[in-house]
Amino acid sequence: MDIAQLGNPILRNQAKPIDSVATEAITQLAKDLIATAEANNGVGIAAPQVSESCRLFILASRPSIRYPHAPKMKPTAVINPVILSRSTEMVKDWEGCLSVPGLRGLIPRHQEIEVEYTTLEGDRLRQTLTDFVARIFQHELDHLNGLLFIDRLETTQDLYTEAEYLKRVL
Question: Distance of CA 162 to CAs 29, 44, 57, 135, Å?
């Protein structure tokens, strides 16, 4: 799928809740999002990034050229997510975004979060996420709320080109 790029208004809008989860359209969108994330070495992707205004994103952590140290997990569709609680501990780490190509930033995020979301099967799940997977969840949830990682920069000195970022992590 085509990925909306920085400047596209859909990336700045609040995504709409999904009323009916168990539909062919939502299942297909989830499959297409997983394929798009994999094809672009993403560890997550949100529906607004493919110009769909709905509260769905994919968590898909795995090592890649973009995130060589990412933990491996099965891609998971997250529908109508909420964060129930956040740790007070904040961790600053690298983030990039398929919708903001060529840039990386050191972004502060909560180290641990308790979340709730609906699965593709219609079950409501509650779980605690930590570290990199918690970071992905917060990043993708921001997309559903019209925010980009660059909005969370504490200073522009924490913004790097992809090439400079790769020099530091490889």
Answer: 29, 18, 24, 19
Fold of 9-169: Peptide Deformylase (3.90.45)
Query: Catalytic: which of 140, 154, 162, 164?
Result: 140
Give bridge partners of residue 140 from the DSSP assignment: none
Annotated catalytic residue 140? yes
State pTM to two decimals.
0.95
Mean of pLDDT over the chain: 95
Taking the C-alpha atoms of residue 33 and residue 75, their distance in angstroms, rounded to an integer, is 10
pLDDT at 16 over 90: yes
Q: What is the pLDDT of residues 40-54, one digit of tens each?
A: 999 999 999 999 999
What is the SS3 assignment for 92?
Answer: strand
Query: What are the residue ranges spanned by the domains of the chain?
Result: 9-169
The answer to whether 134 and 41 have CB atoms below 8 angstroms apart is no
- Cα atoms found within 13 Å of the Cα of residue 30, Cβ hemisphere only: 22
